[in-house]
Damage-inducible protein DinB
Amino acid sequence: MDDNRAKKMYDYHVWANQKLFQHLKQLPERLYKEQINSVFSSISDVMVHLYATDVTWLETMKGSSYQDTVSTVNRRKQEASEISIDELEGLYRSLSEEYYRFFAEQQDSEQIIITEHPRFGRTEFVLADLIHHVVNHGTYHRGNISAMLHQQGERGIPTDYVYFLFK
C-alpha cells in the first residue's frame, strides 16, 4: 500500500501513542496502575484495551477468522495485562511494525475486507475505513487517559492530529 491518507492517519496513531507513553513514563509510577473511578478503573487498563483492540482490527484486516482473532486477542491481552509500562510500550512498537508489514503487502487501501462475525454476520469493510477506525478509537481513549490524569491531579499531553502535522 503506497503512502496515502489512511497510512498517514495510522502514522499519526503511532506518533500519538509514543507521545502518550513518553508522558506517562515521566509521571509518578503509581498513577499508571492506580485505581480510580472513571471510564476505566486505571490508566493501565485503558492502555491494554487500546492494544487489544488494535490487535483485533489487524487480525480482521488480515482475514483471520473470528475464532482465531478472539484467541489471538485473548492471549496477547493477557500478556499485556501482566507487564510494566516499558514492556507494554515494546508490545505497542512491535504491533505497529506488524501493521506496517501488513500495509506494505497491500496494493489498494480501498480494497474490501470481508469478515464473518457471530453477531453481525458477514460484513464488508473498506481497508482504509478500518484504518481510520483504529485511529479514531485510539484518539478517543487517549482522551480518556487525559481526563483520568486530570482526575489524579496531573496534566495530559496534547496528541491532537494538528500537533502531528506541526512536527
User: Anything to note?
Assistant: The domain at 14-166 is CATH 1.20.120.450 (Four Helix Bundle (Hemerythrin (Met), subunit A)). The chain has one domain: 14-166. The chain has a mean pLDDT of 95.
